[in-house]
From TrEMBL:
The lineage of its organism: Bacteria, Bacillati, Bacillota, Clostridia, Lachnospirales. The modification 4-aspartylphosphate is found at D55. This is Stage 0 sporulation protein A homolog. It comes from the Bacteria. Its main location: cytoplasm. PROSITE patterns: HTH_ARAC_FAMILY_2, RESPONSE_REGULATORY. The keyword Transcription applies. Keywords: Cytoplasm, DNA-binding, Phosphoprotein, Transcription, Transcription regulation, Two-component regulatory system. Residues 415-513 form the HTH araC/xylS-type domain. PANTHER family: HISTIDINE KINASE-RELATED, TRANSCRIPTIONAL REGULATORY PROTEIN HPTR.
Length: 516
């Protein structure tokens, strides 16, 4: 059922509206009843509705202001205005707010029911249109990613005009910074794109595929050379000018990545996938940039210098300012715009794994902090390098806050056992043999260890093994089977199980993350 809110300052009339027609029989459910606009807005924010039936003149906040507030949050909501005869001209000011209808008081039962049915029909039409838009987007996505059948490909290709002689096509993916968008901006943006003769395919609420074309006397074969370079420069210039126009006229910031040019629409999926591949450079270049293969080809592939030992030391010493300044300096001063973005992601993954190791070592994963998979998702979901930096600063601050409250002092025997594990983790270690070595009762030693370290001896040994295995996976090309043997696991499948329990990802998946 669609949800309804009734707003009227006179209680008797409000109850009358509620009972004058059978809302449920129409497929509508009255979920809110309010006596003024402010109360209604508060209820709407807690549980939005599909239809608002409201009086115009009310104390605290009138009906028109209520409509403006809700319309600013949701363009789908339908409105019905209740008004007295002498207020009608005043109520007509709501026309720009896309009001469904006006009902004069006293309210007529048949008219209210007819208007409610009309609003319900409009809501269903809007939902069908939205579903169709979503189906279209999914269909285009499938075609562009190469997942369509041969018949489906022909259907999509038939939607494009015939390529003219000496016509060169180019495709670019435009990512819109939603923070710079205001209500109504999208229609103006699309109007400008139409003026610029760009064909637009909607891939998401903030993502567009732009297809442009221009005439050239040059026979395009995708090759290199002075003429090809000149054409690439012209294409880049056209998209850059379009980007500058959107920024100057509408205040909308975008990131545009341009795929390779083509002369046959069958090559559009290839151009799209290449343009999407370059979208990751938004992390380094930020919104307001326009990139193509030529702009990223010469970026340096050497590793970004990160001293994990130093960063770890500052965190464990609870040097909040030192750790935060280190992250600031690393991301703002040491990572240049011409750096290969893959190296940026690898650096971020190293930091994420370092922080996860510290959380594991000090049992902070039980404090409802982000696990490794959450941090990895945050890395690849960050809008830009500033968002990435902010995520790590927040995480480090939280870790240091918890470390301040933790007592990390261990008794001498527990320290000896921990040192023994660090040194001889490859061997068959057990609490029983160690208790014998240190002349203690095994059960008592286990209780002391659990109390001070926060986990059982077996779990601690497993964490040490997995931590060393993780370093070997990330920093060597050794086979995972050999790494398992190296850290003392004779059964590789058991190693996979224990490793995933520790880090939330399998050894092979972790190595793939590094490759990415």
């Amino acid at each position: 059922m669609k949800k309804v809110m009734l707003v009227e300052d006179e209680e008797l009339i409000l109850q009358g509206i509620r009972n004058i027609i059978d809302w449920e029989a129409l497929g509508l459910e009255v979920v809110h009843m309010a006596h003024n606009g402010k109360e209604a807005l508060s209820l709407w924010e807690k549980e939005p509705v599909d239809l608002v039936v409201t009086d115009v003149e009310m104390p605290v906040m009138n009906g028109l202001n209520l409509l403006r507030e809700i319309r600013g949050r949701d363009e789908r909501v339908r409105f019905v205005i209740l008004t007295g005869y002498d207020e009608f001209e005043y109520a007509r000011k709501a026309i720009p707010l896309d009001v469904e209808d006006y009902i004069l008081k006293p309210i007529d039962e048949e008219q209210l029911e007819a208007v409610a049915k009309k609003a319900l029909l409009k809501l269903r039409e809007m939902d069908r249109d939205n579903a169709k838009d979503m189906e279209d987007r999914i269909g285009w996505q499938k075609f562009l990613e190469g997942g369509s059948s041969e018949e489906e490909q022909k259907t999509f290709l038939s939607l494009f005009p015939r390529v003219k002689k000496a016509e060169l096509l180019s495709a670019a993916v435009m990512k819109i910074d939603s923070r710079s968008m205001r209500k109504g901006d999208m229609s103006e943006l699309l109007s400008i794109l139409q003026e610029e003769a760009c064909r637009v395919i909607h891939l998401g609420t903030d993502t567009l595929l732009l297809i442009d074309s221009f005439q050239t006397d040059y026979t395009w074969n995708g090759g290199e050379g002075e003429t090809a370079g000149k054409i690439r420069g012209e294409i880049h210039s056209r998209f850059s000018c379009l980007q500058n126009r959107l920024e100057s006229e509408l205040g909308i910031f975008t990131f545009i990545s341009i795929g390779p040019s083509f002369t046959d629409y069958e090559k559009l999926p290839d151009a799209y996938r290449e343009a999407m591949r370059m979208q990751k450079y938004r992390m380094l270049d930020g919104y307001g940039s326009c990139v193509d293969d030529n702009h990223i080809r010469n970026r340096e592939s050497k590793d970004v210098a990160i001293d994990e030992t130093q960063l770890r030391k500052m965190i464990l010493q609870k040097d909040r300012d030192g750790a935060i300044n280190y992250i600031e300096d690393l991301f703002i001063n040491n990572i240049r715009k011409d750096t290969d973005v893959n190296n940026l992601y690898q650096t971020a993954l190293k930091i994420a794994i370092l922080l996860w190791d510290i959380k594991g070592e000090y049992k902070l994963e039980e404090k409802n902090m982000q696990d490794l998979s959450d941090m990895v998702e945050g890395i690849y979901g960050a809008e830009d390098i500033f968002g990435l930096k902010a995520m790590f600063i927040s995480e480090i601050s939280e870790i240091i806050t918890y470390l301040h409250t933790e007592n990390s002092a261990y008794t001498p025997v527990v320290k000896q056992i921990m040192a023994e594990v660090q040194k001889n983790y490859r061997e068959e270690l057990s609490l029983k043999t160690l208790a014998y070595k240190y002349h203690m009762n095994a059960s008592y030693l286990g209780q002391i260890f659990q109390k001070e370290v926060g986990c059982s001896f077996t779990q601690y040994l497993s964490n040490i093994k997995n931590g060393i295995a993780k370093d070997l996976i990330l920093n060597t090309n050794r086979r995972i089977n050999d790494i398992a043997q190296e850290v003392g696991y004779t059964d590789t499948s058991y190693f996979y199980r224990k490793f995933k329990q520790c880090y939330g990802v399998s050894p092979a998946s972790l190595r793939e993350m590094k490759k990415y």
